Amino acid sequence: MSRLKQVKFRYAYQQFLSHISIIIVAFLVLSLLFTHYIEGLVYENKADELISYGKAILNDIDNNPQASGQIINQYSSVLSLRKMSFSMFDQDFNLYSVGKSGPAIRYLDDKYLEQISKGKTLIVNSDYKTFSQEGVTFVVIPYLPHGKFFGGILLTSPISGSSKMIDKVNQFLWYTILIALGVSLLLSWLLSRLHVNRIKRLQEATSQVSAGNYHVNVPASNFDEIGELASDFNHMVNKINRSMEEIESLENRRRQFMSDVSHELRTPLTTISGVIEGLKNNMIPEEDKEKGINLVSQEAKRLIRLVNENLDYDKIRSNQIQLYKEDIQLQEVLEIIQEQLYLQAEEKHNQIIVEADPDVHVNADYDRLIQILINITKNSIQFTSNGTIWLRGREEQNDTIIEIADTGVGIDPKEVKNIWHRFYKADISRTSNPYGEFGLGLSIVKQLVVLHNGEIDVFSEKGNGTKFVIRFKNDKHAAE
């Protein structure tokens, strides 16, 4: 049990950690990208501002060279208020005028100096490693009157303000990440616990099923795979429950069958044994010997019939019999059944009536068709006294319909569906019944009709008789 709990919590931790890991990685990537974007935007705006001032200074000097000193002083005062400074440099990249404390231009790489001398503006951020000065962004704007390089202007601006803004943005991002992480932790924990609890219910239900309780049920849904698994589990349990009920029903019938077997077999065997012992020891008078021999013959036939019923049923269920279908005149078959069972019907004062046209045919195995009709007719004789049994035949489209109806005691509608079960007997008290003693007759009939690809239905009411309706596909006519 402790191991099960360990596995269960391990799954919860896996769910929890997987959710949190994804969230942390996503936030870190987004924060890095956002920080990089903000830094680039801040430096770009600062560089654009410096460039605009630099071009304005050079433009004013170019338009009014005589007042260059005054222009430089004015711009120096304005830029100092914005914590910016600028210096002029000559064509040899030496600084002069106003602030001379900026980066040494001539120490730039030759490729940058060449680009400046050709008129390209140079922008350097604070992370440029060539200079030791930290926290400064500067731009270099060349001065090219009439297309000739005469120097230029260097503008610098500390980025302390920009750095503080970036730091505040980063701080805000961290606060956002922490809050979102806290909410995510809570939601992830709740979600993990929800999944674990659902799996736990399935595990507990499975344990109950393994313990023999087949009436459990778990909440199911089509929302996700766990819900579908619960639905499949309920379906499985329902099928197991139905199977167990059927097994229990079969077991009850088996017990009844064994009870019937012990009674049905014991009686003829006892009779046969007693008569043989009497004949062997000359205990039976001469005038009664023939009667005793006839009794032994009847009881032996009865035992053979009982054994054959079981053998036939097992062969039919295992598909060990082969059908030899042919086109059979139905009226002739029904009249044969009438003749074979005439005496048995007479014993119970019943009348068998055949109603079928001579041109009605059925495509079936002759021997098995006789077996089907005899079993059903015997069943009707068994439960009918002083009544009538009809054997009818007709054709409907490509089907041949056979009806066997009686005016007997009928069957309770609740019991109709059970008459096809093996060992079922509608009247348990009839233990000396000579027709289908073990309740196998109708079960054999059902199997044989199915083997013919046919259908059989029964309609009955208690006290109002019973009617069996058999439908065979007339393969010959269908082919035509």
What does this structure look like?
The chain folds into three domains: 2-164, 2-Layer Sandwich (Beta-Lactamase), CATH 3.30.450.20; 225-300, Orthogonal Bundle (Helix Hairpins), CATH 1.10.287; 322-479, 2-Layer Sandwich (Heat Shock Protein 90). Helix 1 runs antiparallel to helix 4, helix 4 packs parallel to helix 5 (225-280) and helix 9 packs antiparallel against helix 10 (441-451). Strands 2-1-5-4-3 form a five-stranded antiparallel beta sheet, sandwiched between helices. Strands 7-9-10-12-11 form a five-stranded mixed beta sheet. A two-stranded antiparallel ribbon has the order 6-8. It has helices spanning 2-63, 68-81, 110-117, 160-210, 225-280, 286-317, 330-340, 342-347, 366-382, 441-451, 475-479; strands at residues 85-89, 95-98, 122-124, 136-143, 151-158, 325-329, 351-356, 361-365, 388-396, 399-406, 455-460, 466-473. Helices cover 57% and strands 16% of the residues. It has 480 residues and is α+β, with helices and mostly antiparallel strands.
Which helices and strands occur, and which strands form pairs?
Blueprint: H1 2-63, H2 68-81, E1 85-89, E2 95-98, H3 110-117, E3 122-124, E4 136-143, E5 151-158, H4 160-210, H5 225-280, H6 286-317, E6 325-329, H7 330-340, H8 342-347, E7 351-356, E8 361-365, H9 366-382, E9 388-396, E10 399-406, H10 441-451, E11 455-460, E12 466-473, H11 475-479
Parallel strand pairs: 7-9
Antiparallel strand pairs: 1-2, 1-5, 3-4, 4-5, 6-8, 9-10, 10-12, 11-12
